[in-house]
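Any chance you'd type out a single protein's sequence alongside its tokenized fold?
>
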Amino acid sequence: MKLNLLIILTVFAFSRAHSPFNKHYVGQQQNRNTNLPWTLQSQQTIPQSFPPERRNGTLQGGFGTNVFDVMFQWNIMDFEYPSPQARANAIATRQFIPQNVIPLGIAVNVDRVFVSTPRWNEGIPASLSAIDIPAFSQSPALPPYPNWQSHTSTTNPDCNRLLSVYRMVIDECNRLWVIDSGIVNALTNLQQLCPPKLVAFDLTTDQQILTYPFPPEQVLQGSLHTNLVVDIRNNECNRAFVYVMDVWRNGLLVFDMARGISWRTTNYLYNPDPFASDYSYKGLNFQWTDGIFGSTLSPLNKPAGDRVLFYHPMSSFNEFMVRTSILRNQTAWTTNSAPATAFQSIGSRGRRGQSSTADMTPSGIYFAAQVQLEGVSCWDTRKPFNQNNVGMVQRDPILLGFPNDLKLDADRDNVWVVSNNLPIYLYGQLDFNQINFRLLRANVARAVRGTICDPQVPANQELVDVCPIN
């Protein structure tokens, strides 16, 4: 017992010490009788290493084509204050420090782009904003959403209001769901001022319609909730399930909207891979041990009445899957009877294949932000997930420098990406004389046309090392 406790404490300490907020320089094949991998019948061996002569390969399509357009970009970010005097007062009192603001999450509907700016440091006056489409400027000041009054201060926090939003999702019922971590000053003096909570807004009225703080017993010491996925079936808006990722304590919380309750799920395949915890970006070397992070849902398999959650830890080269019926079974988790084998690895993206977030089209085309490769990859889920069939849509060290969030818009026609140079913000020094942050957009059909992700292109049978050494 003492040995087990020591191991747990050691792993926890390692995880916290190697978080993104500390400086440390230094598969299987799916059933081909269905459209999606609902059952995994035969194991496909994915080589984990390649002989030297094979190490000059790249993702299918190499650097890809120039399909992403810059929609918004900033050297330094500003907020839309009620008056110039209000802005000047905020700067004078250090309530607003422009160089501390960085965009993190994105969600897009027909006429607005929602952007999160978590309060990782002091001087960030609001953590959720909405930019109108079309905008009058490519570098607009951020209008806090839904208004200034909805954002609490950090000195005397009102936990019923927004404190530090990380990421957002727009569901098919025209609601904006956000995960508010409740954490401030993660870069200097991390404080959990409020419990992590889910908040939902009706985008027709811009009214807050739900606030759900997670119960204390489901939030571990050192938890950080940074990402979420919303699961709705048959347009039953009031029967939504929300899956929330705890990246630092390797858990997934399930919220049942109809019953207004939640529970915590765990599995060893939520954990980071130590061999994928070393990163290099523009001359910076750092170590992150981030667990379950990026996730997306498959289309509904109507005969089975189920969906698959595809997910991956941030610090991992592999992709995993679990049926949502496993996650939604509260009894199994509260009685410790959930089958561990329901979680499966489906394949590897290869070396330097760490990915932040992902999303999927209604037809089953999967997009992932590739942080080390400075680009966006794709996968047609009707083909086996392996290094043969993961394609690169576009790589660009300038435009797609550290793609931190990726979402399809509400119409599912376009894929949007936040490129924010996060490692330089954390560990280096941003140059505010150049563009540091971008919101980019690519048309889905154009992005996959002619790539291995195009449904018209057959699965690739040739063994390819998808990740170059340099």
About this structure: DSSP finds six helices and 29 strands in the chain.
